[in-house]
What does this fold into?
Amino acid sequence: MVLYHVSFSQKQDWHYHTIEISKIHRVLLAENYADYMAVAKACSGFDPEWERKEYEINELSSQQLITTIFEPVKELDKTMPTRITQYILQGDELNVLVDLNQLCQSSNTATKLYELLRRPCDLRHTDICDKPNSSEKARMAFYQRWTDDYTFEQIIRFARVLTALCGNLRFIKLITPELPSWFLYLLYDGLITTLPICCDNEDRIDERKNWSIKQLHELLEIEESGLGKKLLFAIFDRQNITYRSCFSIFLYD
It folds into this structure.
């Protein structure tokens, strides 16, 4: 985890406005500073190479990025990360989806993979000191770079892998039967992974600058002509979404 800046804000009319530090009561400021130091003490401490490590992921090639995302799966099957990469990028290793589905038939195995990959497709509270691992950082980079570095067909195959990994998890509910499950899992994971902890710019999220409704429409049209017309179901349908998760995911969109 890298802390770039700290600010105080006040909520007014459903929006947060930054407050000048000179206007913060001294006692409140002291208490917040103490809390900040407690969090810092609980973490692993300052890493002098943090900046280099922060940019390492973004320097990976498109192939290395996919392999890094699914690297944790090797704990259950050493060949799986390479096979998944081949399937996503080349369309080879078609049986990899069958094998992943078989692995995930066991609820214990499915949950273990879910945790190893840092909870894809699901919005769950994590400890503020819980640093993203390489797999999670690579997934963040994937959604920032996706249509620049990958074809629509490769993105769809990526989504099918997510579906094989998450499809047997009962706590991840699909919001509509009108769209393919792979598209919904991709949308879930993309929105959640690119969701910042706080957003100073309420008009846009930089992590989603390569996202557009047109892209999502084209993904669906590749699956089936005319399916893009049903994209609105993914935007407005709210089945199986709690108020908290819905508010958290779509607040910044």
Observations:
- The first helix runs from residue 26 to 42.
- The two ends are 24 Å apart (CA to CA).
- The longest strand covers residues 8-12.
